[in-house]
Amino acid sequence: MGEQLTRSDVQKIKEEIEYRKLVVRKKELEAVKEARAQGDLSENFEYKAAKQDKNRNESRIRYLEKMLKNARIVSDASRDDEVGINNTVEVYFEDDDETEVYRLVTSVRGNSLQGLISIESPLGKAIRGHKAGDRVKVKTNGENGYYVVIKRIDKTTDDSNDTLRKY
C-alpha cells in the first residue's frame, strides 16, 4: 500500500521533481565540475561536499518518483459537517483539559509543530469522518488511548504554501 496523496500533493511532487531535475541538478553538476578542476581529489573538501549535495538531490528525486509510483490518490472532499482532508479542526483533549487547533493533511505535508496533522497519525485517523460534538477514542497502542471531543470544524481548503516533508 502506497502513500495517500491528494491530486494537489501529486502536482506539488511533480513540480519539485521537475525543479530538481532542471535547475538543481545542473547547479550541482557544475559545482562538482568546478571542484574537480581544483586538483587533488583526495584532499579536496569542495569536491566531496559538491558530490554529497549532488547525491542528496538525486536521492530526493528517486524518493519522490517512488512515492508517486506507489501513491494512492485520495479525495480531499468531505461532507460539510464532517472532518476531512485540509479541514481545520478544534479538538478538546479530555485528559489534559486543553483545546488545540489542527489542520488535517496528508502525511507528505504533516508537521505537528505547525498544527498540520497527518491523516495517517493516530489523531488524524481517529477524527477523520467524524462530526462536531463527537467524542472519539484515539488509539495509541492496541486498545490504549485517550479521548478527544471535536469542538468545531472549519471547511478550509488546500494551502498551496504548505511544503512537502523532506523525508
TrEMBL record:
Q: Name any one GO molecular function.
A: RNA polymerase binding
User: By its UniProt entry, which Pfam families does this protein fall under?
Assistant: GreA_GreB, GreA_GreB_N
* Location of the Transcription elongation factor GreA/GreB N-terminal domain: 4-73
Q: Which UniProt keywords apply?
A: Coiled coil, DNA-binding, Elongation factor, Protein biosynthesis, Transcription, Transcription regulation
Transcription elongation factor GreA/GreB C-terminal domain location is 80-150
The superkingdom listed in its UniProt entry is: Bacteria
Q: Which residues form the signal peptide?
A: none
Which GO terms are recorded in the biological process aspect for this UniProt protein? DNA-templated transcription elongation; regulation of DNA-templated transcription elongation
Regions that span the bilayer? none
Q: What does this protein do?
A: Necessary for efficient RNA polymerase transcription elongation past template-encoded arresting sites. The arresting sites in DNA have the property of trapping a certain fraction of elongating RNA polymerases that pass through, resulting in locked ternary complexes. Cleavage of the nascent transcript by cleavage factors such as GreA or GreB allows the resumption of elongation from the new 3'terminus. GreA releases sequences of 2 to 3 nucleotides.
Q: Which family does it belong to?
A: Belongs to the GreA/GreB family.
State the protein's name.
Transcription elongation factor GreA
